[in-house]
Amino acid sequence: MELLIDTHCHSVATGHAYSTIQELAEQAAKKGLEMIAITDHGVAMVDAPHLWHFGNLKVVPREIYGVKILRGVEANIIDMDGNIDMPEEYLRRLDWVIASFHDVCIKPGTIEQHTHAWIKVIENPYVDALGHSGNPVFTYNFDEVLRCVKDFDKLVEINNHSFLVRTGSEINCKIIAQKCKELGVKIVVGSDAHISFDVGKFDKVYQLLEEVGMPEELIMNTSAQKLLDYLKKRKNIII
Ligand SMILES: [Zn+2]
Ligand SMILES: [Zn+2]
Q1: Ligand 1 midpoint to CA 19 (Å)
Q2: Residue 31 to residue 67: CA distance in whole angstroms
Q3: Is residue 58 part of a domain?
């Protein structure tokens, strides 16, 4: 099993990331990836790009160095009702929307509050994937939320970067991956690269998926066509 798509990459448009889209694509090509998603932070983060960044993503070529490009965002969950920091008119134009909790944008609450927020996020028709939900700071009721993900045919992200920066994610990610396998919930894998050299860095995730014995049909990163077919059921993507 090979992971050929990186669904979570930050460009220099995010203040604390350091590579251009061109550099991200160049590294992705070198590593043999078929597709990457550009997912800069939603506007509630202090060093996020202006909304216009997302509005103008149409100028980014659909393919760079032979790597397909998804125009996306990593939106911030901004309240416990699962509202996110991107207006609908912008979300509508994007190929790929991750929604994540970041403690610089929202104060952590209770398990019940996080669970409620995730359910509302899943119900948002523009959101495709739950970003780095293994973060123990925002623990939620896994069964309840993952059943909802399954009902809405959304995706759960397993984030390689979480193992390094979000302490305690390792255990949660394993539980989440095991439950996704049991329930038949589809997953995506993201590097969460903040510099081009980390694009397609999936070492921790490969290990985890092997330990869990995740069936390939539930992993959406194994071919660009597979992910595009999934997204095209809900979105008007022309790649
Ligand atoms: Zn994030
Ligand atoms: Zn990120």
Answers
A1: 17
A2: 10
A3: yes
The residue written with tokens 């909790």 in the block is 101
End-to-end CA distance of the chain: 24
**Cα of 213 from ligand 2 centre, angstroms:** 26
Rounded to whole angstroms, the Cα distance separating 100 from 187 reads 15
Separation of CA 124 and ligand 2 centre (Å): 20
Range of the domain at 30: 5-232
Residue 107 belongs to some domain of the structure = yes
Q: Tell me: the pLDDT tens digits for 51-104?
A: 999 999 999 999 999 999 999 999 999 999 999 999 999 999 999 999 999 999
Q: 75 with 98: CB under 8 angstroms? A: yes
* DSSP 8-state secondary structure symbol assigned to residue 140: -
194: left (phi over 0), alpha (psi -120 to 50) or beta: alpha
Q: Looking at the 3D structure of the chain, how many domains does it have?
A: 1
Q: What is the mean pLDDT of residues 4-20?
A: 98
With respect to residue 153, please indicate whether it lies within any of the assigned structural domains.
yes
175-210 pLDDT, tens digit each: 999 999 999 999 999 999 999 999 999 999 999 999
Q: Is residue 105 in a domain?
A: yes
Contact 47, 13 (CB under 8 A): no
Burial 200-216, CB ≥16 within 10 A → b, else e: bbbebbeebbeebebee
| SS3 of residue 37 by DSSP | strand
Q: Domain of 146: which CATH number?
A: 3.20.20.140
